[in-house]
Specification:
The protein has 111 residues and is of the alpha+beta class. The chain has a single domain (1-108), classed as Alpha-Beta Plaits, CATH 3.30.70. It is 37% helix and 29% strand. The chain is built from 2 helices and 5 strands. It has a 5-stranded mixed sheet, covered by helices on one side. Pfam families: Peptidase_Prp.
Amino acid sequence: MTEVTFYQKDEHVYRFRVDGHASFAEHGEDVVCAAISMLTINTLNAIESYTDEPFKEICINQKEGVIDVEFPRRKTGEYAPEAELLIKSMILGLETVKEMYGEKYINILNK
């Protein structure tokens, strides 16, 4: 199962961690894992390309299925509105994956 944890302050995500593989299917055929990866990686690429929101890669380990990223300015209440929209869009996509495939493959936590 993949566990996605969003760390929030004042309703803004300042860090998120994706941990584990969905195990929906064999490696290379796992559409749930592919969807989760695509949503998170595309969001980070879009934030980097289209906003001025800095982020720090705490850990990225493809083998273990870990993406752990922090947005340092968000802890102090500063954030780019465009990045906020991209993060909310990612959350919506992940929640849709959870609705389609179930909690057996993806769990979403808010802290």
